[in-house]
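testing teh design pipeline on a random one, pls ignore if ur not involved
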């Protein structure tokens, strides 16, 4: 598919990943890009979705909108995380079918993988067990959309593809400590702790779980390459193929932020899934995607953006929680 000249709808297009997808679409010559905002189209409401499709008539749909958060947010909101992610996706895919959208690209989540999936995670093992409990409702809601895409392809001939991005990071990420994932939370806390002169930071768990991270611009490129070159029914991982422990991650972020205090691990808090590392061969084989940004480079760009553009930095504000070492706890990603 040549995306140039297509009328493209990007749900979540004003968000973290979506904003980079929109920018990449513009670079490819797309001039008609629809970014539905919640105030205009609440995607949890069927009437709003119907109105969106009637008013905009998209030819291509990227479904990136999601209700997401770290371990704490998942634990506090399992019902709403399940409902909102399921209802948005199910209705959007159904209306894309009804309105004859040429191609639908759905972003899933690696939280859908079984808790003890063999390393590296291969797409074939997606159904071989139950997800990690703290984010299972979110993961299962998103995995249901894969089933829907495959069922609609079989019954209606709908061209819908499903991608599984690994944990993302980069500029414009969510740095809210109540809902952010691990990298922005650590960056914010490390910089605040440095500014406040705190002797230590407290991190959840024991630091042993591993994660894989993908720079957000690379993920956006992977989604567009899939839209252009992939028409298969099987899910495809999007990742960097590089695994690191949470302990190593904390060390790298603290070094990059020049925070030299101690790290205390609160082992009464959950670790989350033990390991995450993707097999990324299918993405390279099917549509030529290989992550191009090293973690060190991506981390540097993310920290620079936060220092320059975050509201806290602009206002010269130090998070009041960071004044007490026992409050500087970091939630790991789901």
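output:
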């Amino acid at each position: 598919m040549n995306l140039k000249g297509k009328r493209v709808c990007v749900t979540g297009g004003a968000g973290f990943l979506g904003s980079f997808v929109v920018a990449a679409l513009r670079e490819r010559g797309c001039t008609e890009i629809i970014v539905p905002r919640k105030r205009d189209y609440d995607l949890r409401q069927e009437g709003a979705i119907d109105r969106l499709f009637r008013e905009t008539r998209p030819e291509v749909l990227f479904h990136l909108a999601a209700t997401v958060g770290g371990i704490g947010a998942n634990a506090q909101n399992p019902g709403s995380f399940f409902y909102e992610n399921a209802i948005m996706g199910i209705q959007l895919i159904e209306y894309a079918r009804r309105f004859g959208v040429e191609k639908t690209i759905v972003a899933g989540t690696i939280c859908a993988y079984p808790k003890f999936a063999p390393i590296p995670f291969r797409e074939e093992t997606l159904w071989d067990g139950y997800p990690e409990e703290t984010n299972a409702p979110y993961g299962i809601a998103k995995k249901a959309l894969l089933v829907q895409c495959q069922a609609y392809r079989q019954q209606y001939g709908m061209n819908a593809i499903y991608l599984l991005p690994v944990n993302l990071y980069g500029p414009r990420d969510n740095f809210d400590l109540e809902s952010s994932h691990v990298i922005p939370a650590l960056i914010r806390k490390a910089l605040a702790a440095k500014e406040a002169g705190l002797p230590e930071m407290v991190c959840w768990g024991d630091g042993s779980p591993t994660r894989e991270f993908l720079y957000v611009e690379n993920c956006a490129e992977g989604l567009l390459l899939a839209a252009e070159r992939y028409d298969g029914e099987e899910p495809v991982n999007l990742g960097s193929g590089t695994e690191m422990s949470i302990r190593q991650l904390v060390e790298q972020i603290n070094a990059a932020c020049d925070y030299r205090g101690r790290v205390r691990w609160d082992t009464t808090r959950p670790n989350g899934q033990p390991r995450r590392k993707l097999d990324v061969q299918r993405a390279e084989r099917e549509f030529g995607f290989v992550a191009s940004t090293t973690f060190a480079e991506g981390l540097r760009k993310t920290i620079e953006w936060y220092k320059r553009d975050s509201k806290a930095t602009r206002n010269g504000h130090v998070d009041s929680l960071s004044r007490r070492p026992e409050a500087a706890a970091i939630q790991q990603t789901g």
